UniProtKB/TrEMBL annotation:
Gene Ontology molecular function, alphabetical: LPPG:FO 2-phospho-L-lactate transferase activity
Name of the molecule in the record: Putative gluconeogenesis factor
One Pfam family, short name: CofD
Source species, domain of life: Bacteria
Lineage: Bacteria, Bacillati, Bacillota, Bacilli, Lactobacillales
GO annotation, biological process: regulation of cell shape
Chain's role: Required for morphogenesis under gluconeogenic growth conditions.
Subcellular location: Cytoplasm
Keywords: Cytoplasm
Family that this chain belongs to: Belongs to the gluconeogenesis factor family.
Xref: Gene3D superfamilies: CofD-like domains
Principal location listed in the UniProt entry: cytoplasm
Keyword check for Membrane: no
Keyword Cytoplasm attributed: yes
The species this protein was found in: Lactococcus termiticola
Length: 325
């Protein structure tokens, strides 16, 4: 029997939680990862070595590998702030940069490291080039750079990407286009709407593939609103923004968490970008023509509210099985 082909699109710390759960299933799994990060270690490396930023790819590589936890901890080790030029760099970022420079391509480097670490499935950067994210706010102000967008006050009207080196239109990895067109299901998220998911979606060839694919499209809605991005957003607002950027209503199912985050639970010092829990607007979701799957997807960890990867994976596998039947 052919394995179900599932593509997960996103970046940041959201999708690794889901990928870690899905890699254990009997599926053909592919991760598509944003390359628009310009902050922290990734930003410094992309400027120094002229490669796509490695941070989000590192997290996905670890999530999809069967490596022992000790190895994962080594790759995630971040040099101390007193360590001069190495300060703040995770070892895994430096490894990806070194292999990318040696092999001349970050896509080739991730394939090589994927074999080395025995990953389950495929990992593709959305583009082989570093991209710059631009946000146009409702007052007409434009801010360039993912790390700067969340710091600007105001509501975002839309986002778009440019090639960091040339300033031209971004070019998608052909592998990404092919896997979306060939997929049985495409899952977007979980992750930051404007800085993790949309930086993949607005690449023209990926946008076109999402409009043309016969795959079911699933969106995993965020649990918390995010400062500078989705303040006061409902779950319907998240879907609406995705559809506006796609140019068409293509999302078939949306997964929403209905478990309440305990009052005063969030550690606002450790998770200062997260504000309040996303409110539900089931009437608005109906207007967006999506089927809603609501359940307890909440996982509380050290003062933060996250998705329970196993719970989300169970729903996705259930959808996949019903689709196959």
């Amino acid at each position: 029997m052919n394995k179900s082909k599932i593509v997960v699109i996103g970046g940041g710390t959201g999708i690794p939680v889901l990928l870690d759960a899905l890699r254990k299933e009997n599926i053909d799994l592919t991760a598509v990862v944003t390359v628009a990060d310009d902050g922290g270690s990734s930003g410094k490396i992309r400027n120094a070595v002229n490669i796509a930023p490695p941070g989000d790819l590192r997290n996905v590589l670890i999530a999809m590998s069967d490596m022992p936890q000790f190895y994962a901890d080594i790759l995630q080790y971040r040099f101390d702030e007193t360590d001069g030029p190495l300060a703040g760099h995770p070892l895994g970022n430096l490894l990806i940069a070194a292999v990318s420079e040696k092999q001349g391509s970050i896509s080739t480097a991730i394939r090589t490291l994927g074999r080395f670490f025995h990953i389950s499935g495929n990992i593709y950067p959305s583009s082989d080039q570093a991209l710059t994210l631009h946000a146009v706010f409702e007052d007409g102000t434009e801010v360039a750079g993912e790390s700067s967008i969340g710091k600007h006050e105001g509501l975002i009207s839309h986002v778009y990407l440019t090639d960091t080196d040339t300033g031209g239109a971004p070019i998608a990895s052909q592998n990404v286009v092919n896997c979306i067109m060939d997929a049985d299901m495409v899952v977007m998220g979980p992750g930051s709407l404007y800085t993790s998911i949309l930086p993949n979606v607005v690449i023209p060839d990926i946008n076109k593939a999402l409009l043309e694919t016969k795959a079911k499209v699933v969106y995993v809605c965020n649990i918390m609103t995010q400062r500078g991005e989705t303040e006061n957003f409902t779950d319907a607002d998240h879907v609406r923004v995705l559809h506006e950027h796609l140019g068409k209503k293509v999302i078939d199912h949306v997964l929403v968490n209905i478990e309440q985050v305990p009052q005063d639970y969030m550690d606002n010092n450790a998770f200062d970008e997260y504000l309040v829990q996303v409110k539900h607007d089931f009437a608005g979701l109906k207007e967006q023509e999506v089927k809603v799957i609501s359940n307890n997807f909440l996982r509380l960890v050290k003062g933060g509210a996250f998705h329970d990867g196993e719970a989300v994976a169970r729903e996705i596998m259930g959808l996949s099985k019903r689709q196959a039947d």
